[in-house]
Design goal:
TIM Barrel, binds ribulose-5-phosphate, single chain, 43% helix
Length: 265
């Protein structure tokens, strides 16, 4: 791996623990004003001190994050579809590398939609992005498909998606947690982070998800709704950090979360 690429990646995946807590706030690119992300700046600002990286679009970056913040940016560069359109999978690359460089990002991210009619198009998007990423020293995060029909959370399907992403050159991969998750990680070739998915019933469930993923080889989380749609987002991200970076059990992380909650009530 080239020096620049490795340097950028190690801003995201912290070398002291080998882990990362990425905060995902890119949902608006196909969902519009998602609940609790209506005013992104209000959601993002209090969480910045606790996030290792921020995953978002250029629009939210420019309007809602101060350029003086010293936080690695993972820029979503795919899109062009919406939740009410004919197919979420019909994505194209929406942001150039020139702009990503101008925005001083640490990585770019795109979605791939394996198993859909747009599989080839989105995998070609990935391959092209990796070619450019290699040229400029910018890592590429491949996100395995989102969307209700596509959330096939089984190890066979997710291993297929993640391995294809790695074979096409993705430098790290984001996917869903599933049973036998270690099989997904073992066959992926590059580091894997997990998405949180829709908000779970309790915050303990979100911690359990993070804990199970970490214990089966994930390098971290790229979590959104389970943090910022929770009752107390700062308490939540601190709990997740305890699991990801501190190796805390779910009970220990719950204590941290409840301690933080108590301070604010
Ligand atoms: C959308 C994404 C989101 O960033 C991802 O789903 C993570 O957020 P959440 O934890 O809310 O699922 O990649 O394509």
């Amino acid at each position: 791996m080239d020096w620049g690429l490795k340097n950028r990646l190690s801003r995201i995946i912290k070398p002291d623990t080998g882990h990362t807590v990425m905060l995902a706030v890119d949902h608006g690119y196909f969902l519009g004003p998602t609940r609790k992300l209506e005013v992104p700046r209000d959601t993002i600002t209090p969480l910045i001190p606790y996030a290792d990286a921020l995953m978002l679009t250029r629009g939210v970056l420019r309007t809602s994050v101060e350029p003086t913040e010293n936080l690695p940016i993972v820029l979503r560069v795919s899109g062009g579809t919406s939740i009410i359109g004919p197919s979420l999978a019909d994505e194209e690359i929406t942001t150039t590398f020139e702009e990503a460089i101008r925005l001083n990002v640490s990585a770019v991210a795109l979605s791939i939609f394996v198993g859909t009619e747009y599989e080839k198009q989105t995998l070609k998007n990935l391959a092209d992005l990796v070619t450019e990423g290699q040229r400029y020293g910018i890592p590429v995060l491949a996100v395995t498909a989102v969307g209700k029909k596509l959330e096939k959370r089984d190890a066979r399907f997710l291993s297929l998606c993640c391995r294809i992403a790695a074979e096409l050159g993705a430098h790290f991969v984001k996917t869903y947690y599933c049973d036998d998750f270690q099989k997904v990680v073992e066959s992926c070739l590059v580091p894997v982070v997990i998405a949180g998915g829709p908000k779970l019933e309790t915050f303990r469930d979100a911690l359990q998800l993070a804990h199970d993923a970490m214990s089966q080889g994930a390098v971290g989380v790229d979590m959104g709704r389970n943090i910022w749609q929770s009752e107390q987002p700062v308490a939540s991200i601190r709990g997740v950090r305890a699991v990801v970076h501190g190796g805390a059990t779910v009970d220990e992380a719950m204590e941290i979360y409840e301690g933080e909650m108590a301070k604010t009530t």
